[in-house]
Amino acid sequence: MTPTVTELLLARAEDRSTGLLFEDRRWTWAEHVRACAGYAATLTGTLRPGGHFGLLADNVPEFSFLLGGAALSGHVLVGLNPTRRGAALARDIALADCELVFAEEKYLPLLSEAGVPVLPLSELEPAREAVVPVAAKPEDLLMLIFTSGTSGDPKAVRCTHGKIAYPGEMLATRFGLSTEDTVYVSMPMFHSNAIMAGWSVGLAAGAGIALRRRFSASGFLPDVRRFGATYANYVGKPLSYVLTTPTRDDDADNPLKLVYGNEGAEADLAAFGTRFGCHVVDAFGSTEGGVNFGRDATTPPGSLGRLLDGVAVLHPETGKPCPPVEFGEGGKLLNAAEAVGELVNTGGPGFFAGYYGDPEAEAERMRDGMYHTGDLAYLDADGYCYFAGRLGDWLRVDGENLGTAPIERALLRHPAVSEAAVFGVPDPRVGDQVLAALVCRTPIDPHEFAAFVAAQGDLGPKQWPRFVRVLDTLPRTATHKVLKRELAADGTHDALELRYPRI
């Protein structure tokens, strides 16, 4: 039976083990639950029953207390993104039907157009009186989490008690976590990774939850040692940022046993585990939760793992299952047009509980009773799945559909390239031309780089970037996803045109 966050909290009401760690402060689980109950009473006296409130804050203790308070009182916490500004942030607040917003003082200037009352978080006090916890059900709404907004305005994903509690309990059980462990949470708590792969895991296990106000690559290992962290959650790019910090002979001398997350680069997963003496488990998933699966010990390099029952790769035009990919010399995809399709949960919505206030986007996700991820993938002959990019990233070059992810993976093999984002720019005649935005460790020579690309056996000539733009950084969301639409808006401006050998 799927638990609720309320049940998981109440199970810790008398637990004297460490429940929350932040900087130099500590709370037992019993103290944490009492604080949540106090905030629940405050919410009950401030909002209408079931009302929504926004929270604009870093990973501070009040975030945990208010989320727990919402679970006990039946209210809904709306995680607000501090990289949003002005009318955009006001749009998120209005879409989520927030009655008011709690904010850290440093973020108050961002809320001049909020349109609802704004209260400094420092002035929020937990009530002294006890609150009678609601009898929550797994399908009850607990939180609204906005998507990254890489392809347009962020959507508010409905996160129910079950959607948050189930992965926490599942992962805590899968990894054997207990009150002897400490879960390190440095990813932003307004996003799903921190809540479902971090906070809820610690709650379900009864482990201590160590909060880092904001992610810091240089602060990662010192924090792990200071808090005694045995488990940490991540998204891909921060994992690579940690690896760029100077190496030391004692890097593996730390308590970390397991790191779990998604979107990790293949090379980073192995390098991180070796350097820090831990096991790295990378999975596929999204805030929506419609499709989730992960790697295991048998997963070949580059693969996301095997699909779960009911999940298939369907051709976006015919809606039929795609055949396995055929590999040529050097790993080149010989039948990409037929083998690359969209990842679809044919059995239903999975843990997708819908978008709040956006029925059109919800209908686009759920078509014919099936959940459509919008992610492109292909399967090998053994059933292992490989990511090929986003459906919106699909390039049309000389009449052929191409995914961007295989091109990006190949470009990252060049020793000078640390980051790569591939997207399409309009071809003067028809379709797209391939442009690659790169962040480089050292300068690249266009002639040498073109020769390198042409030498990659798994790339065909239509996949070779026609243009390359070298940048200091790639534009990213607060959750570290590349904003390709911003890159594409510049077209070929400041881009180098590559010259390839005739074939």
Automatic annotation (TrEMBL):
GO terms for molecular function: ATP binding; long-chain fatty acid transmembrane transporter activity; long-chain fatty acid-CoA ligase activity. GO terms for cellular component: plasma membrane. The keyword Calcium does not apply. It is an enzyme of class 6 (ligase). SUPFAM superfamilies: Acetyl-CoA synthetase-like. Residues 407-481 form the AMP-binding enzyme C-terminal domain. The keyword Ligase applies. Residues 20-356 form the AMP-dependent synthetase/ligase domain. Keywords: ATP-binding, Ligase, Nucleotide-binding. Its EC number is 6.2.1.3. GO terms for biological process: long-chain fatty acid import into cell. Belongs to the ATP-dependent AMP-binding enzyme family. This is Long-chain-fatty-acid-CoA ligase FadD17. It comes from Amycolatopsis japonica. The gene is fadD17.
